[in-house]
Amino acid sequence: MNNVTMAFTFVLVHGHWHGRAAWSALVPHLADKGHRVIAPQLPSDRLGCGAQANARTVLEACDAVEGSGDASVVLVGHSAAGLTIPLVARARPVLHMIFLAAVLPLPGVTLEQQFSADPGAEVDGFTWRTRGDGLLEMPEDVARRHFFSDCSADDADEALLHLRLQTPTTLEEPSPLDRWPETTSDYVVCSRDRVLAPPWQRRLARERLAVEPTEIDSGHSPAVSCPELLAEVLTELAARRAVHTR
After folding, report:
1. CA distance 97 to 116
2. Does residue 91 lie in a domain region?
3. Does any domain span residue 139?
4. Which residue among 59, 158, 231, 234 is the one 20 to 30 A from 225 at the CA level?
5. CA distance 190 to 198
6. How many domains does the chain have?
7. Cα–Cα dist 17/167, whole Å
8. Is the pTM of this model over 0.85?
9. How remote is the C-alpha of 230 from its chain's centroid?
């Protein structure tokens, strides 16, 4: 890694069924490296709030932090947040996007349509329940087995406490992204992921982003299972991009 010390503003965007608490173990490790962290709580537990509403929330969170308008902003989108961070990068300048075990949007195409056309994306057994009010509920046993498969029992128990209901909107809506942002990207594959198949993640990175993915030995939630390692990886990817743009 480059020896130049650099500080970044990491904007951490959580995935489906999660909230900002999903990043709580990672934030101190990034802060210890001198980075600033913004971790907004998306409105993803409200019916009708899709990727555009999520992006507005991220933009408002960035605007509320003094100095976050500079070129040090790195967007990190975990899992379904991959649908959101390109919208943010279309709306404001950012240094870089990092997709962490994430899906990617296709303009005008729903995520359900993407998965139907590419059945190798999802790992067998990952499922959820639809409540009478239309919100999606994640069963505890599924979350423990698929979200937190490599976490300690205590860490998994704590993470389960913070899971939220999920609107189906981001699954069902055509992506509002009009075109891909010019911002550069990296993709981090979680090699023991039980939500999105690792071979699919590798292919997505190469075919859709034209990047060679960075791989870490973790399940779907490295911010919970190995936050120190994830902080190192995010910092290295951001620093590499910053050096190349000088």
Report:
1. 26
2. yes
3. yes
4. 59
5. 6
6. 1
7. 9
8. yes
9. 13
